[in-house]
Automatic annotation (TrEMBL):
Residues 56-302 form the Calcineurin-like phosphoesterase domain. Its EC number is 3.1.4.16. GO terms for molecular function: 2',3'-cyclic-nucleotide 2'-phosphodiesterase activity; 3'-nucleotidase activity; metal ion binding; nucleotide binding. It is found in: Cell envelope. This is Putative 2',3'-cyclic-nucleotide 2'-phosphodiesterase. Keywords: Hydrolase, Metal-binding, Multifunctional enzyme, Nucleotide-binding, Signal. It holds the Pfam family 5_nucleotid_C. Belongs to the 5'-nucleotidase family. It comes from Kitasatospora setae (strain ATCC 33774 / DSM 43861 / JCM 3304 / KCC A-0304 / NBRC 14216 / KM-6054) (Streptomyces setae). It catalyses: a nucleoside 2',3'-cyclic phosphate + H2O = a nucleoside 3'-phosphate + H(+); a ribonucleoside 3'-phosphate + H2O = a ribonucleoside + phosphate.
Amino acid sequence: MSLNRRDFVTRSAATAAGAALAGGLTAAAATPAAAADLDRDDARGRGPVPFKATFTVMGTTDLHGHVLNWEYFTDSEYDDKAHNDVGLAKISTLVEQVRQEKGRGRTLLIDAGDTIQGTQLSYYFARVEPITGKKAPRHPMAAAMNAIGYDAAALGNHEFNYGIPLLRAYQDQLDFPLLGANAVHVKSEKPAFPPYVIRELRLGHGRPIRVGVLGLTNPGIAIWDKANVQGQLAFPGIPEIAAKWVPKVRAAGADVVVITAHTGVDGGSSWGDQLPYAENAGAEIAATVPGVDAILVGHAHKEIPQRIVVNQQTGRNVVLSEPALWGERLTCFDFEVEYARGQWTVTGVSARLLNSNTVAEDPKIVKLVADQHKKVVAYVNQVIGSCKESLSIADARFKDTPIIDLIGKVQADAVRDALAGGPYAGLPVLAQAAPFNRTAVIPAGEVKLRDAAGLYIYENTLEARILTGAQLKDYLEYSAKYYARLAPGDVVNPDTLTNQANNTPDYNYDSIYGLSYDIDIAQPVGSRITKLSYQGAPLDPAAEFVLAVNNYRASGGGNFPHVAAARQVWANSDEIRNTMIAWVKAKGVIDPADFYGKSTWRLVRAGVPVF
């Protein structure tokens, strides 16, 4: 790994035995002797005159593999209803503008995690041409972030999707530290990644100001990527570890402490009560951990220009900011500081967001990844089969649709084939599916790889678990909390029918392929599933079924009942999207008549269909 750009910072490899520095640090500052104090008494002899200065810490989060302003699933320039732009090439232009405005030596650039998963560009260099190979290419995210000049980044939960070896390979390609104070070795409980780094900025005074950047990641990794981290890494709570490490960062000489954390400001959890740790803990850190000046948060995919939280112990304001996702925004923490009586003091902090759609892409970054981009475009445009009619996901949140049944059919077929000839071959196979991507379409005619990949956008793998009929009903009742309660006769507004009361994301709304049922949204949560049947007969509560389910759900993601504790009878290490691609290639033609209508679900109110 190359050294950091500033020679006053040293970095030790987190994986090397005995590499931890004194006090368990894996990244710290090698600080030169401070220059002579330049404080001078004023003309009236009233003591030293404070030296005042400013600097800016810029931040991104949840880049999710976006280097260019490009959508690989549609093979076109990225655009959305709000006309946002995305990608590091845009961020690079914004960063250079801030550096020119403030002075290059008066800025830092950090990230709050989730960088190497999310686009076909990042997927390609994790799975198709992985950076762990003998002739390993440089990951396009590493290449772009190095070129832009990042100073530090926190680990995100999606960094672990492809396994620890690939994450370590990515880490080794970075010119800056990948921080994670609460990603610890299971046996030693010592940090497996650098907890923090200290950067020095020269603001025109004799002694540079030392900015400590502490990195924290999300404890949910223990559930969401259980297969990749179990027995190797543990992820203690975010505020608890912040309280441990902030004093250490201060003791190591930091005048200012900025936290970059892959956690939201506040809000609900994706895992329910399975862990005693908060998923979105930014505000809690600010309120309970003294000594923090600013927090760059992420994970929640929200746009928060500035949130101020008063620390309960010190009474000082802590400024938080989240710059949306994918490089749509750049956070700027603007610091006001002064030097007096031998020390730097923060006198003010504010945060603002810059919008990527106001600038052009940096041609240097575009050129840097041009060859990799072309390779991925060719890859996703492979023709893998055809479809007899166009299949859209547009109504999948409210209606049983062929495109979601296609996911269920592929998963059920894969599990049924895997169990053939074994002790569970006689059990009926059902499949769980969720509407991941609201814009997915399988076109009539030629079907390309990107069409299938756009339907299943996550790197989930497939498992098979045994559940009873009664457990499956509980599962569906839990899933049906996705819908707001709506009395018969009330106006149906699709924009408020889901996600409102309990903030359930689309990826946590499951239907079960192979069962037929109604969801009565006039009823309270827990009493909504009616007319539940299998192959035309009422579902037997005692009967056993095999449920084809993704690894996120099987590991407890979403906190669905029974499934995480259910008996596993099969698991596959390949992504479900690849299983879908292989299925289409083998069939040649997608015919909805082969799978749609075999089982159905519908929304009702007092038995009357909503749609």
